[in-house]
Write a structure and sequence with these properties.
alpha+beta; two-stranded antiparallel sheet; two-stranded antiparallel ribbon; 92 residues; rod-shaped
């Protein structure tokens, strides 16, 4: 049990005073509000991580494309023959 002193109340007719004490028997934060707050923080961090990953992945892909273009590995906007992915379809 914790007691908190919030001040004093004085009696102006006499010299008596009384302390204002608040006893705390329960948690000030309910379990529901703790879970909701934790969920919001987790969702926010997840959203920021996803955004950062997407921007980083796109920046890497663009840098890789620019480097390959500077090296002349593209012919007419398409990758050269040795850079193309092999197709699973058989030619007829």
């Amino acid at each position: 049990m914790k007691n908190f002193n919030w001040g004093r109340i004085y009696n102006h007719e006499g010299t008596e005073y009384k302390d204002i004490e608040v006893s705390n028997f329960t948690m000030p934060v309910s379990l529901k509000s703790l879970l909701v707050g934790g969920s919001l923080i987790t969702a926010g961090v997840g959203c920021l991580l996803r955004s950062a990953f997407n921007k980083g992945a796109l920046a890497y892909e663009q840098a890789e494309y620019d480097t390959m273009e500077d090296l002349g590995l593209f012919a007419d906007g398409e990758p050269a023959e040795h850079l193309r992915k092999p197709s699973n379809e058989e030619e007829s």
